[in-house]
Amino acid sequence: MKLLGALALLPILSSALKFDLVAQSGHSAKNERCIRNFVTQDTLVVVTAIVSGNRGDGMMVNMHIKDAVGNDYGRPKDVAGEKRMAFTSLADTAFDVCFENTLTGRSHIPNPTRHVELDIDIGADARDWSAIQANEKLKPVEADLRRIEETVNEIVQEMEYLRIREQKLRDTNESTNERVKWFAFGTMGMLVGLGAWQVVYLRAYFRSKHLI
């Protein structure tokens, strides 16, 4: 409880990622700009993108949300203005939010650029705490403590995930070292046996030639 009280005193800072997206002619994976983040399985993720410009201005911004194991969470086309997407992660892996700006008109555009403002909320930050506070009739302090408690639980779960992953990596490392050790012993034994066989063979050969 002391930890929750201390965390409640900390300011909650949230800043969106802002960047410019230059329009390119034609579709190509090389023209995509992707932002990667890690998420654990069954975690709520809310992606909010604010794209400048208007539809039909000679540029088209497409989004693609996917993860590293092949799951696809959406492909919004011709995004202009605010676009919000929510999904629940299907695996413990990294996911990418990709943007591509392509030229659609034949007329020359002086500055073919769209400005993108991206905000990604994960876990407790992705939940609508105003609605939760209204539905459960919570006081503002109670809602803040509830949110901080869920954030702490997510941190504990992530630390547990990292501990399990470190344990698996350590087991793999120890197994590999054991295999390398026995492979080295086997190689040395094979070389010793080959050397002994060569000595016996050469002695028999020289005796057959009456050289020794």
Automatic annotation (TrEMBL):
InterPro entries: Emp24-like (IPR015720), GOLD_dom (IPR009038). Residues 1-16 form the signal peptide. The chain crosses the membrane at residues 182-202. GO terms for cellular component: membrane. Keywords: Membrane, Signal, Transmembrane, Transmembrane helix. It is found in: Membrane. Belongs to the EMP24/GP25L family. PANTHER family: TRANSMEMBRANE EMP24 DOMAIN-CONTAINING PROTEIN. This is Endoplasmic reticulum vesicle protein 25. The lineage of its organism: Eukaryota, Fungi, Dikarya, Ascomycota, Pezizomycotina.
